[in-house]
Every structure is written in C-alpha cells, then in structure tokens.
Amino acid sequence: MALPWPNWSWWWRKRRRSRKPAGRQVAGVIVVVVEQDEEGKALRRVVLVVEYDGAAYAGSQYQKNASTIQGELEKALNKLTGERTRLALAGRTDAGVHARGQVASFRTRVPYEVEVFVRALNAHLPEDIAVRSAREVPLSFQVRRQAKRRWYRYVIHNGRQRPVLFRGHCWHIAQPLDITAMREAATHLVGEHDLAAFAAPSAPARTVRKVYRAEVRRRRSWLVFDIEANSFLPQQVRRTMGALVQVGLGNQTVEDFRRLLASAQRGAVTLAAPPQGLCLMAVEYEGLNGSGYEEGTDL
Predict the structure, then answer these.
(1) What stretch(es) of the chain map to CATH 3.30.70.580?
(2) Residues of the chain with pLDDT under 70
(3) Which among 37, 53, 94, 178 is annotated as catalytic?
(4) Domain 148-285, CATH
(5) Domain 21-137 - what CATH class?
(6) In which residue ranges of the chain is CATH 3.30.70.660 found?
(7) What is the predicted pLDDT for the residue at 35?
(8) What pLDDT score does 29 carry?
(9) Residue 238 has what pLDDT?
(10) What is the pTM of this model?
(11) Comparing C-alpha atoms, which of 57, 137, 47, 128 is closest to residue 90?
C-alpha cells in the first residue's frame, strides 16, 4: 500500500512571498537548497518512513553496546553514502516494541534520487527493518519537534488458546475481559491531563500531555487499543494498557481508573503491558498528511 506523504507546497508558497529562493524539483516536491558544506557540496535532508519488528532490538534509540533500530539505519546509510550520519527519529520505542510508521530524518551530500534511498537502504538493512518510502524536505525540518500527533496501537489476544503464529505481536490474556468497562475507562484519557500516574520513573519533570483519541474495540478474540496524543511519556501506553486490563479483569472499577488518572501520582501504575503488543502506527505533522496506514487496514 502506498503511504500518504506531506505536500510541502504550503511551505514553498510562504517562502516565495519573502524572497526568491534557488530550488529544484525532486519527485514532485519543490525543495530549496540553502546550505553547502566546506567542500561546496549541497546539503539535503531526507525523511524516511520505517517499519520494523522490534523483537531483536534494545529499542529504537542508538546504544553503544546494543543493537537498535537507529544503529541499523545508520550502518545502512554509511554503507550506501560513505558518510557517518547521525539519524533522528520522530518517536522512541522501547525494546521489543514494533513500528509501522516510524519517521526518521538525516542530512546527506549524496545526489541520489529519493527512490534510490528506499531500494538501496532495504538492500543493506536486516529483514526485520524496512524503509517504506522517502522524501526530501527543507533542511530546517525537525522530525521530532515538529511532530504534532503520534498514534500507537496495542493488541491483545483474548482467548483460551495462545495465538502461536502471532505471539510476537500481541499480549495473550486467557481470562475474559470486560470490553464495555475498558471502553468507558479509556474515554477518561481524552483531553489534556497530567499523566504522571502512567509514566515510568524515568519520565521528565513535565508530565502533562494532550490525548486526542483513546479507543478500545474488539473483533472476535482480538482486542485493540488505539491512542493518539501530541507526545508520550516513557512506557505511558504500556502502563495505560496494564491499568485498562485491570479494569477489564474486574480487579479495578472505572471509577478507580478515573481516580488513578486524576491523582497524577508519578509511577502509580506499576503493571506495564509486555512490549510485543505495542506498535507505533503513524506520526503526523501540522498541515500535512501523516506517514501511517489508514484505519482498519489490518485489524
């Protein structure tokens, strides 16, 4: 499936009003070349949409002594371009967490068309990481700071027998879950809240976040929790899922969940759902199309 990508024409029109830039056409997108390195080579910024299975990795962020998504992408870029490139990611994922719409960006001097980055990087990457698409963007673009909305999905298999073929992409819970109670509890998450209760101890000092959507739905034995917010705290989704499961099992009431949210007590939720059920689906930017899949394409 082709992934939707931002239309940068709004940025170009705004820039044209103030000055006359030097530009060129790349894959249907007008791109401004505004910087050169010491050797006079034009610097460019390329953005990638990346999909990965996180089972074999110690998270997305680079670690010196562990295999990570960022580390593998940088090694592939080095093989392709000969440059030592530091890549930036729109969102951080924990060890074992997957992604369908992670967004990454990097600067480069090589003159390859963006389609070449997709084909060539996939040739150098391991089989559990794939670049889905690439675009050239303005050099000033900041993939993390300019992200306005992130969408995560958590998947539970709620059946008596464990799902062997999908065990690496869900949390298996054999006991019946009260989907109605879980849905009601999830509605309390929508809005701007101090989410310290659902954060890991390593969370930053500011724990207020704006949640745009928090929905629980079921299809046969599969339960899906979708949540969208401006940004997320460390382990926020997994701990939120753990608290919702306690409601679904009858160990807590919807009112208990609401009071837990209102308490803003850092680390109050200690049960974090296992990482393999979590997936970063998409990252969106203001005024632009997102990088993720359309709702309902998989479950």
Answers:
(1) 21-137
(2) 1-41, 286-299
(3) 94
(4) 3.30.70.660
(5) alpha beta
(6) 148-285
(7) 54
(8) 34
(9) 97
(10) 0.83
(11) 47
